[in-house]
Amino acid sequence: QAVVDFERLGEHAAAFQGHDVGFCCLGTTRAKAGANGFVRVDRDYVVQAAELARAGGCKHFVLQSSQGANAQSRFLYLRVKGEVENLVQAVGFDHCTILRPAVLLCKRQESRPMEWITQQFLGAVARVFPTAYSVPVEMVTRAMVACVLQPGEGKVKVLENGAIHELAKA
């Protein structure tokens, strides 16, 4: 494990050398970082990490994005997620897998009351409609590993929430 300073990511290029696969789940919130900080973390840092990974020999990059990602969206969150998907694809990996999970169900160390309420509600909905609106983070993790073990055909593969659930079960 290497600890890097994302403000000086280029100085840590050695940490990205010699890896066949790269996994990226980097992100923050607008509330925590502000609009500019959100863009810097969720787009700029991710793209720079992807470029360093590719330069270091990475062949398959796996990016956690978001359901509804769209570079043309009016909503900052979805627009930035769509932009980063496009930019990472343009880096030129042999394989690029993009996962677009719905609301992530997880336990957080920090307090986010509204997110907790949403997770409780969606957790109950998931008992009836398991792939509709949410996904446990453990399932996303299993799907990320599975897509590397079974890369399939094509240069770019986009997995929506339902496909994440299916792949995680395989």
Helix/strand layout:
Elements: E1 21-24, H1 30-55, E2 60-64, H2 76-90, E3 95-100, E4 103-105, H3 113-128, E5 134-136, H4 137-149, E6 156-160, H5 161-169
Parallel strand pairs: 1-2, 2-3, 3-6, 4-5
Class based on secondary structure composition and strand pairing? alpha/beta
How many independent structural domains? 1
Number of helices: 5
- Report low-confidence residues grouped into runs of 5 or more: none
Explain what this protein looks like in three dimensions:
One of its GO terms (cellular component) is cytoplasm. This protein has 170 residues and is of the alpha/beta class. It has one domain: Rossmann fold (3-Layer(aba) Sandwich). Helix content is 46%, strand content 15%. It has five helices and six strands. Strand 1, helix 1 and strand 2 (60-64) form a beta-alpha-beta unit. Helix 1 packs parallel to helix 2 (76-90). 27% of the residues are buried. The mean pLDDT is 89.
Attribute tags:
170 residues; Rossmann fold; Protein HTATIP2; single chain; alpha/beta; 15% strand; two-stranded parallel sheet; NAD(P)-bd_dom_sf; catalytic activity; NAD(P)-bd_dom
Write a concise synopsis of the structure shown.
This protein has 170 residues and is α/β, with parallel strands linked by helices.
